[in-house]
Structures are given as C-alpha cells and as structure tokens.
Specification:
The protein is about 70% helix and about 0% strand. The protein contains eleven helices and two strands.
C-alpha cells in the first residue's frame, strides 16, 4: 500500500520536475532571442489565446510598437519577425499554465484518494505558493522593460530565475524525501556529518546561478571575449566605476563579469575539497561515481563559459550553459537531500 502511494507521488513529482526544467530552458531561449517584451499585457485567463487572424496579429504588433524596445531597437521589424518573438513569449506563458495544471489536477486526485499525508503538506503548499508567486514575478519582470527601458531589470530577472530554481529544488527535495523514507535508507553518522560540505556546495551553486542572471541582465558577458584575462588585464580596469561596492556588485558590468568568473573558481575549490574527502575516506566509497558525474558537469560548465566568451555568447552555447547549470544544481540538491533524509545508523 505504501509503495503504491510513493509510486503515484513519484510519477507526479517527476512530471513536475521535468516541466520545470523545460520552462527554465524555454525561458532561457525567450530571453536569449529577445522575445520577452513582445506581449505587453498580462491576461491570466484570456492570455492563453494565440492570435490566429491577420487582424489579431496587427493589433498585437501595434501594442508592441508603443514600447521603447520597438522604437529604439526594433523599429525596422516586420510583422513576420514579430510573430517569431511573440510565439516564444506566448509559449513561455502557455507552458507555465500547463505546469499549473500538472500540479493541481493530480493533487486533487491524490487528496481524493487520501494519499497525501500530513508531512507532505509543507512541501505541497510551498511548491504551490512559489508557483503562484512566479506568475506574478514574471509579469513584474516584463513590466520593468515596457517603459523607459529596452530590456527588463536585472534585479527582477534574477528574482524570476532564482524562483524557478527554488521550485525545482523544493520539488526534487520532496521527491528524494519520499524515496529515501520509503526505502528505509540508512547511512553512517560519518556520512551524515559530510553533508555540511554538500550544503556549502549547494549554497554556493545556488548563489552562482542567481548571480548569473545579473551577467545576463546587464549583458556583462559581452564586454570581454578574452579569458582568463580581460582584454590583456588581469582585472577589468573599470571594476569600481560606481559610487559604492553594492552598486558595483549589482549594476557595474565589469565588476559583475569579474565576480562571476572569480566565484566559479571558489566553487571549483569547494568541489576539489569534497573530491579529496570522498576519495580518501572509505566510508564515502559509494559516492565516488556520483561525484565524478558532478565533476564532469562542472568541467562542461566551465568549458561552455569559456567558449561563450570567445564566441561572443551564441544562443546555443548560452542555452547549453543554462541547461547544464540545471543538472549541476539538481545533482547537488539530490546529494544533500539524500544524506539529510537518510537515517543514521545507531
């Protein structure tokens, strides 16, 4: 009976995880293709409708012509070109609605069948609230680019991205919890103690993804196409052009790209320390395959970052970079959650 409950939950949670991965990638391409401001209104219900007639397309295009992005950047855009960017923003919003249905419809079934237990409620409520918040945050982000700007605020962009990763992380953690408890997994106390290193790696990874949104939002990655230096300088010469460190941290492109690259080195050092501990301690033997996979993902991420720099951030490498960060994040969340929920041997 318990196994059936877990299997149903697993299918539901895996579906949600896959949907969140997909929408992060769809959102990434929407951002990369400069499609995010093509729909200038937020209509939670009627917005699901896609323009099908010529007159409907002209109405939507006329709305787009009123914002600064069109006036200052895309004034020569044709209707056919507009249809392309409109589709990706519409599809991004449409897929978000699909995720809402994937969340709520199976949940009704699980509640009806009395398969939801009390300890599940915190995770379910958190995922639901984050999902609703994300819809509002998405419009809040888009709205920032409609007046006096040709792009969305990097602050709101980072808020939108990191909320998506929060939803992914909480859902995956919920899945791991159900699986570990169902299978009565035990680990030694020494293994449990090692989890603090995975927690550190998780926090640092989460921060690096969060800060990556500032690289994207300020187009800092386009400032230099050299690595590891910055146009023959070890440190960018304009790293402190703003009035305060905090403003430089969030708004100065030279500082942002320098910090993002430097923090990647910090992450690498933490990963090396974890590798050393896993490969020198026998009680961590079973984690060696997992950490090797994580190592490969980190190496791929660094190489993608370097190639993006040299090739001026082509869309396919940028999307691969974001996609690979998803798998790095999921791997670390899985490791930390596994050790957190596993029972310690007496």
């Amino acid at each position: 009976m318990i196994s059936n409950k877990i299997n149903i939950f697993s299918l539901w949670l895996i579906s949600l995880i896959l949907c969140v991965i997909a929408i992060i990638l769809i959102g990434g391409y929407t951002r990369i293709s400069d499609s995010g401001l093509s729909i200038t209104e937020w209509k939670p219900i009627t917005g699901v409708l896609f323009p099908l007639s010529q007159s409907a397309w002209i109405i939507e295009f006329d709305k787009y012509k009123l914002i600064d992005e069109f006036k200052l950047v895309n004034s020569l855009m044709s209707l056919e070109e507009f249809k392309f960017i409109y589709f990706w923003e519409w599809f991004h919003r449409f897929f978000a609605r699909i995720i809402g249905l994937v969340f709520i419809i199976p949940l009704f079934y699980l509640v009806y069948k009395k398969l939801v237990i009390k300890s599940d409620l915190l995770y379910i409520i958190t995922i639901g609230l984050l999902g609703m918040m994300q819809a509002v945050i998405g419009w809040y982000m888009v709205k920032s680019g409609l007046v006096d700007r040709v792009d969305v605020s990097q602050y709101r962009l980072s808020f939108h991205l990191i909320t998506a990763f929060l939803i992914l992380g909480v859902t995956l953690r919920f899945y791991v919890k159900k699986s570990v408890l169902n299978n009565n997994i035990f680990v030694s106390r020494e293994e449990k103690n090692e989890n603090r290193y995975f927690l550190l790696l998780l926090v640092f990874t989460f921060f690096q993804i969060f800060y990556g949104a500032y690289v994207s939002g300020t187009h800092s990655g386009l400032l230099y196409n050299t690595w590891p230096n910055y146009n023959e300088h070890i440190i960018p010469i304009n790293i402190f052009v703003k009035d305060s460190l905090l403003v430089n941290f969030f708004e100065n492109g030279d500082f942002i790209i320098f910090f993002h690259r430097t923090f990647a080195v910090v992450l690498t050092v933490v990963l090396i320390i974890i590798n050393y501990r896993i490969f020198t301690k026998e009680f961590l033997f079973k984690y060696r395959t997992v950490i090797l996979i994580l190592d490969i993902l980190f190496i791929i991420q660094m190489l993608l970052g370097i190639f993006m720099t040299y090739y001026n951030i082509p869309w396919h490498l940028a999307l691969l970079h974001q996609g690979n960060s998803i798998f790095i994040f999921m791997s670390v969340v899985y490791l930390h959650s596994y050790l957190n929920f596993a029972q310690a041997k007496l």
